[in-house]
Amino acid sequence: DKTADYFDGDTYIQHNPRVPNGKEAFVAAFRQIFAQNPQRHSRITQSIAEGDLVALHVHTVTGPQDRGVAIVDIFRFDANGKIVEHWDVIQPVPESTASGNTMF
User: Fold this and answer.
1) Per-residue pLDDT tens for 43-54?
2) Which of 19, 39, 66, 87 could be stapled to 61 by a disulfide with Cβ–Cβ 3.0 to 4.6 Å?
3) Separation CA 73–CA 58 (nearest Å)
4) pLDDT given for residue 5 in this prediction
């Protein structure tokens, strides 16, 4: 909960269709995710910052046998440097790609 207080501003607008607005909903969503998937972890592979926006390209897996998902998170920060808005796009990592390139 302290992490959310540190990062999330007083207003937290959520654009993920499965998570409600607000800090409490953010904390509850991640508590549930980690309770269901205790081995879940994420690795940030790219980051971009411009003005009050930060975008992260993330590889998230739920365990050693999981190929995982590619996530692009976009965060908007307030003047105090706290997250006040979030968007994300999530795509499963395929076994292979037409180009032969990885997603990361």
Assistant:
1) 999 999 999 999
2) 66
3) 8
4) 66
- How far CA 88 is from CA of 16, 22, 55, 65, 75, in Å, comes to 6, 16, 9, 24, 9
| CA nearest neighbour of 42 among 58, 65, 26 | 58
First to last CA, the chain: 30
Among 43, 3, 46, which Cα is nearest to 27's? 3
Q: Which residues pair with 46 in a beta bridge?
A: 57
Q: What confidence score (pLDDT) does residue 30 get?
A: 86
Q: How far apart are CA 4 and CA 14, in angstroms?
A: 14
82-93 residue pLDDT tens: 999 999 999 999
Q: φ and ψ at 50, to 5 degrees?
A: -150, 120
Whether pTM > 0.90 for this model: the answer is no
Which parts of the chain register pLDDT below 70? 1-8
CA–CA gap between residue 48 and residue 40 (Å, rounded): 24
φ/ψ of 33, rounded to 5, equals: -60, -50
Q: In this structure, what token pair is assigned to residue 54?
A: 């930060």
